Amino acid sequence: MSDVVILITGASGLLGRAAHKKFEAENCLVYGTTCSRTREHLLHLDLTAEEEVRALVTRLRPAAVLHCAAVRFPDQVDADPAAATRLNVEATRSLCVVADAVGAPVLYISTDYVFDGKQPPYSVTDLPGPVNLYGRTKLLGEQAALAVNPETDHNVDLRVLPVEACACGVPQEPELSGVFHWSGKEGLTKYQMVVQMAEVLGLPHSHIEPNPNPPTSSAVPRPYDTRLDSSRLEALGLGRHTPFRTGIQTAVRPWLPSA
Ligand SMILES: NC(=O)c1ccc[n+]([C@@H]2O[C@H](COP(=O)([O-])OP(=O)(O)OC[C@H]3O[C@@H](n4cnc5c(N)ncnc54)[C@H](OP(=O)(O)O)[C@@H]3O)[C@@H](O)[C@H]2O)c1
Q1: Residue 5, exposed/middle/buried by CB under 10 A (0-12, 13-18, 19+)?
Q2: For 215-248, what is each residue's pLDDT tens digit?
Q3: Using a 6 Å CB cutoff, which residues line ligand 1?
């Protein structure tokens, strides 16, 4: 077991769980945090409680922090903007401040939703233009993470679409800083994903039809196509792409009858 301590926030979430497993497999001393979900192997941490965050980070003195926790459902953000801002922006800022105080770089997980979805693929130098409040809070979180200490300048902002596992090499590269993108190579609509999932599961799908007029009035607006140009990450040899169908096959294999 390596003595490199990694702290992962939001380790009870979709990405955090995958990242936690990955770092454990790499023999890191990994501490994951949860908030409302109780998990034996995770530490309880409410990121909006500044003193709690300071105490944990000061005690663990991690070599790096992978910050996955967020309110990530656009409708949930619109329903309670103040709570989303407290977690996505203010808690990000205070986590980065205490991490900086112990010399730990933070890998902030952002989102493709910082872009408007009109002119993909987006490079790291393209101007963000979020179309909903979720995207705006995540963009403010990015800015907070990158501004925390211009002198150390060691935080990394990773914009992802969709979440697969995690670019787990990034926190172990001490010289990295700035904004990186990662996304799958395929541009798929939800309908195309459902068809591929049905095919993998051997289920009929001819009764499912794409909706040419997706609802716009009541739902929170979403960017249409936010494929990201991942070349900055790939140049480091860190980008990993799994075709959607292969990923689904791997995920459902344990539950298929022939497994
Ligand atoms: N999922 C996607 O499709 C997607 C796409 C692009 C980018 N992202 C970004 O990727 C990151 C991870 O997303 P995800 O899908 O893994 O999210 P998720 O499954 O919704 O998990 C969110 C995590 O945040 C934690 N959390 C919530 N409130 C907290 C608080 N007050 N203090 C501490 N932790 C708190 C949750 O803990 P409890 O559940 O234990 O409360 C949970 O572990 C986010 O930054 C998101 O913006 C996600």
Answers
A1: middle
A2: 776 689 999 899 999 999 999 888 788 999 999 9
A3: 9-10, 12-16, 34-37, 45-48, 68-70, 72, 87, 109, 111-112, 138, 160-163
Q: Write the residue with the smallest CA distance to atom 21 of ligand 1.
A: 13
Please give the positions annotated as active site: 134
- Please determine, for residue 257, whether its predicted confidence score (pLDDT) is greater than 80: no
Residue 38 CB neighbours (<10 A)? 9
**CA 147 to ligand 1 center in whole angstroms:** 22
Structural domain includes residue 250: no
pTM: 0.93
E strand or H helix at 136: helix 133-147
Provide the CATH number for the domain around residue 151. Answer: 3.40.50.720
- Local structure of residue 3 (DSSP, 8 states): -
Asked whether residue 255 is assigned to any structural domain, the reply reads no
Number of domains within the chain: 1
pLDDT (tens digit per residue) in 160-181: 765 443 444 444 555 778 999 9
* Phi and psi angles of residue 250, each rounded to the nearest 5 degrees, phi first: -65, -40
Report if residue 212 sits inside a domain. Answer: no
Report which of residues 173 and 189 the model is more confident about: 189
Domain extent for 71: 5-186+226-242
